[in-house]
């Protein structure tokens, strides 16, 4: 619960209109706001992969051999 309290304290800095109380209500508020918590290293990796995917799409990766196979593999997972 310490991590959630830290996140709530951080959110309160930016939005003082949030009615944040102790306990389960805090968690419900965060879930309703659709937040997730990930490690910064994982976030950076997701950003890099997203940038790379964008570059591939700009270069026409959808016209390359194996593109439909890759799409099918992703749908299976």
Describe this structure in words.
With 77 residues, this protein is mainly alpha-helical. Helices cover 66% and strands 0% of the residues. It has helices spanning 2-14, 24-32, 40-58, 67-76. It is elongated, with a radius of gyration of 19 Å. The two termini are 32 Å apart.
What topology does this entry show?
Layout lengths: L1 H13 L9 H9 L7 H19 L8 H10 L1
Throw out a few tags for this protein.
single chain, 77 residues, mainly alpha, 2 domains, 4 helices, 66% helix
Compact overview of the structure:
The chain is mainly alpha-helical and 77 residues long. It is 66% helix and 0% strand.
> End-to-end distance, in Å?
32 Å
Low-pLDDT residue spans = none
Report the major sheet.
none
* Classification by helices and strands: mainly alpha
- Give me the Rg, rounded: 19 Å
Question: How many strand elements?
Answer: 0
Write the element-wise H/E pattern from the N-terminal end onward.
HHHH
- Averaging pLDDT over every residue, what do you get? 76
The tally of helices reads 4
In what range is the share of β-strand residues?
under 5%
